[in-house]
Design a protein that fits this description.
The chain has six helices and six strands, in the order αβαββααβαββα. With 133 residues, the protein is α/β, with parallel strands linked by helices. The strands form two sheets. The chain has a three-stranded mixed sheet. Strands 4-5-6 form a three-stranded mixed sheet. The longest helix has 15 residues. It is globular.
């Protein structure tokens, strides 16, 4: 399989500021029907982060915390695990397995330009097999 990450990545990304509340993140996730948001860096020395539905459920809702009082940066994961868009799919799969993660962000230079989920990988694999017969 010589498929490149750029061929299967999803470029539909949404961002959120680190000082936004978790409630703001919930609204955006529900409104956009997404599972994660990119947390933009505070400044040049900071790195991208990610906040997921899983983070919100396990770190806020499960502990009966008020999402209006908790900032995104308090529960976001940093830094995001990202991979260059020219990387081959095989390497991406090994990375996902190594870190036991469901999504990997795709960068071009210092900019996050996409995301690849396990579902994207599975779909690409099925398409590749169908093409080979």
């Amino acid at each position: 399989m010589n498929t490149k990450v750029k061929e299967i990545m999803n470029t539909k990304l949404e961002t959120i500021r680190p000082d936004a509340t978790v409630y703001d993140a919930i609204e955006k996730l529900v409104d956009k029907r997404m599972r994660s948001l990119i947390v933009i860096p505070k400044d040049e020395k900071d790195v991208y982060g990610v906040i997921t539905v899983r983070d919100i459920v396990f770190r806020v809702i499960a502990h009966h915390l008020d999402p209006h009082k908790i900032k995104v940066e308090e529960i976001a994961s940093k830094p995001v695990i990202s991979i260059d868009k020219e990387t081959e799919l095989e390497h991406l799969i090994k990375l996902m397995e190594k870190f036991n993660i469901a999504r990997v962000f795709v960068h071009e230079g210092k900019q996050i330009v996409g995301v690849v989920s396990l579902l994207d990988v599975m779909s690409a694999s099925l398409i590749e097999r169908a093409r080979r017969g």
